[in-house]
Amino acid sequence: MQKVKLGTTDVEVSVLCLGTMYMGTKTPADISYTLLDRYIEAGGTFLDTANCYAAWYEGGFGGESERLLGHWLKARGCRDKVQIASKVGFGYTGTEEDPGAETSLRAEIIIRECEKSLKRLGIDCLDLFYAHNDAGMLPLDEMLGAFDKLIREGKTRAIGASNFTSWRLADALSTSAHQQLAQFCCVQQNHTYLRPVPGFRPELWPPASPEFLDQCARKDITVIAYSPLVRGAYMHPDQPLTAKFAGPDSAARLKVLGQVAQTRGVSANQIVLAWLLHSNPQVLPLFGCSSIEQINDTFKCLEIKLTADEMTLLNDAGCVKR
Q1: Residue 322: inside a domain, yes or no?
Q2: pLDDT (tens digit, 9 = 90+) per residue, 5-27?
Q3: Which domain holds residue 210?
Q4: Alpha-carbon distance 233 to 7, whole Å?
Q5: How many beta carbons lie within 10 A of that of residue 312, not counting itself?
């Protein structure tokens, strides 16, 4: 599996990132171990988790995903083979033994939650630590100062942003430069082949707009796409799309996507992932799975080499020509 560096850092990751959100809750430990083993076997190295995963699932309080990864790392002795990304920012319930946190990126919460994530994972240093959201839009110097402290103390190798708007990302990069603080090397954003409805402005899930992607390319910021397969929407075109993606050009883009997939003899999901990897700038897909069949099906996207004509066809679908 191809490896790339995150931004201008020396943190090198595989182009497919495995999301572990439901491991330890919805996905039992035995199945989780099987999926993690298969991912490593296929050359994957980039594991994504968060302190709050998966507090909202039945029986979950937060921290379950990190704890499962910690047990797996210890059982397999493979810490040196993977890069682990975790996040801070969203609140979670926690337990009496492992208290939760509020939704915030105040400095003391960033520092405390990093320590707790490291303990659950059973490691000394994260490879990547994200600001999971920009809720409250707290002063950037406080937030970045806390992340900078963690890097200087060897608690994380790099930092990233998730669910930030273009203007707040620009302000964060400017603050880092002016105050000589650690800079976000990557962003994890909701991004897929379908385009969001014009004017759609979710409070916590801003999409990766063309302007956002262009800004990241100019600043050498790696883009990681979460929920790239829109919860199965591409494989079930008969089902209604979510409001976010039920835009005026969605039918046209789904039609072209289906044509390219049919011509190639592959699934629409595989074309979407290949399209992300062939995009300029390249976008790294973050995917989740719950079975060996799903993870093996995902890996097939790596075998697809889209031509320039296919990329043009996919990119131009639904665009107004003048």
Answers
A1: no
A2: 999 999 999 999 999 999 999 99
A3: 3-316
A4: 31
A5: 11
**Residue 86 Cα distances to 116, 142, 220, 285, 287, angstroms:** 11, 20, 21, 16, 15
Could you give the number of structural domains in the chain?
1
210 within some domain: yes
Phi and psi angles of residue 264, each rounded to the nearest 5 degrees, phi first: -80, -20
291 pLDDT more than 90: yes
Task: Report the chain's terminal Cα–Cα distance, integer Å.
Answer: 40
Q: Report whether pLDDT(56) > 60.
A: yes
- Long-range CB pairs of 308-315 (<8 Å, 24+ gap) are 310/260, 311/275, 311/278, 311/279, 313/256, 313/260, 314/193, 314/253, 314/256, 314/257, 314/260, 314/271, 314/275
Radius of gyration, alpha carbons of the chain = 19
Cα–Cα distance, 140 to 165 (Å, whole number): 13
CATH of the domain at 71: 3.20.20.100
Mean pLDDT of 167-192: 96
**Residue at 189 is within a domain:** yes
pLDDT of residue 126: 98
The span from the CA of 145 to the CA of 149, in Å, is 6
Quick check: is 321 in a domain? no
Identify the band that residue 183 occupies on the pLDDT scale cut at 50, 70 and 90.
very high
Torsion on CA atoms 76, 79, 80, 86, rounded to nearest 10: 140
The rounded distance, in Å, linking the Cα atoms of 99 and 14 is 33
Residue 203 has pLDDT above 70, yes or no: no
